[in-house]
Fold this protein.
Amino acid sequence: MSKPSVLIVGSLAYDDLEMPSGTFENVLGGAATYSSIAAALFCPVRLVGVIGEDFPEAVLDDLGKRGVDTAGVERAKGKTFRWRGRYSADLGSRTTLDTQLNVFADFRPKIPQAFKSSPYVLLGNIHPALQLEVLAQVERPELVVADTMNFWIGSEAQLLGKVLEKIDLLVINDEEARELTGIHNLVKAAADIRKRGPKHLIIKRGEHGALYFDSDGAFYAPAYPLEDVVDPTGAGDSFAGGLMGYLTRVNTLAHPTMRRAIYFGSALGSFCVEGIGPRRLLDVTRADLAKRMAQFVSLVETGGPVGLPE
Amino acid sequence: MSKPSVLIVGSLAYDDLEMPSGTFENVLGGAATYSSIAAALFCPVRLVGVIGEDFPEAVLDDLGKRGVDTAGVERAKGKTFRWRGRYSADLGSRTTLDTQLNVFADFRPKIPQAFKSSPYVLLGNIHPALQLEVLAQVERPELVVADTMNFWIGSEAQLLGKVLEKIDLLVINDEEARELTGIHNLVKAAADIRKRGPKHLIIKRGEHGALYFDSDGAFYAPAYPLEDVVDPTGAGDSFAGGLMGYLTRVNTLAHPTMRRAIYFGSALGSFCVEGIGPRRLLDVTRADLAKRMAQFVSLVETGGPVGLPE
């Protein structure tokens, strides 16, 4: 039997990044791109998205060599989705300068027949209506993970509510969790979100790590502390991809597995931010990953049970 | 031989707290108060500070029953230090409305003869000149820990530099670390601070936990995620007190011990914020603490080595 695959649906893009270290144009981007590169370190990936006539064949070829099946990447008339953003001096925030949806404006995900039985599905941050369209096309996946963003929380609350009913794991950041629930305390907000559908919930806190909640309790993983953060673009998508790739590979959703999956996701996110766009992520080997994981886990080990001294 | 003691020097105060949940006046406060209550769960405490004529004898009696030797608490003419502050709706920030230094304005710490050989010393957040005066009076402590704040970093940089040269462990928050060094990246800022003197460094990040650095590497401990945060006042001081109490009790500064000490400090901080002022902290039993520590550690356990799946 072949290894289980993960289906990833989302954006492929080109980004123009105005960083404190300089301006970088025509940088390969898109949530699904980052997620696929990260997930492919663990398992075969099936990618569904849309690109324009300007998207280089060589990039698809490279993804293919990494184990990403790009049969679901539709090439449409027009230009690829393009985003231009400027980061603050400390890289802590960013401003969108320009968004050109281009071929992404009319994107309707079509899942190839061969992809429909994928046991693991990652719904990138796209319109909740499109996320629902994907779910209508796939056959009983074991795990559906979705990302979303403030924009959909504000403008498509009802549709997003339907998505939540149908997914197993929601991955959002702390501000989104607060906006979605109207609750500031994250422990309480998590309980509220889990009542709406997803049994599993990850709340990302950027450089402050991630919280995980399921019926077995809570888990906290820090972000890997880096000396040099170059570009945060794609970190969250690399996190989701690494997490999904690991879960797909080990093929279980038990609580301890989720803990390790979050560490793998965070490790991939930490590599991602070390280079402009996906440059560093594209260079990561499994040996690099194993090494970082060891360092990462040693960062939080308490060295055994922590009992009170007499 | 008797158990080793910790010497704690700092403020005793009364606070008026304008919380989202109501206004609470004449609440027992002061950094040294919180630190002493927390540390006393582990080891005998020797407290040095100043109070006014209005400070109730009953509070000193209660501290005494907890194992806090208040022989170094000077009663001066006038009123006790008083602080009035208002917290934001989410408790994430606070504004000082009024500070009445009162007897604290002329405080010059006098270390009683019997306290001078204390092996562990916690210098609360007081004027760096006073921190140096304390160090001039004590005899070769094994560990000196200091807290400080933005105010001294900005106004007394030179004196603070002298303090740094003489201490073993500095406990500050992330913004203070950045202000002290002019470096945004905390890993780099930590290296810079450690070059200035303290071999050990803790950078507190409030609800985001704490980072620790020494020659054996870095360590990260999250904050214990609470459903109900009532009042953050004193959390950092309870952290420092719990940390010092544990270190004093186990009497070693090895890297794994520091990791556990940070967890104990964080656990005490988490109790502190559960009540107005020190109310909850004063009720914490060793059984409560052991239970929270177990829950706390289970929050971050990865369940063994994290290897890459084949």
About this structure: Chain B has a mean pLDDT of 94. The two ends of chain B are 56 Å apart (CA to CA). Chain B touches chain A through 48 residues (CB under 8 Å).
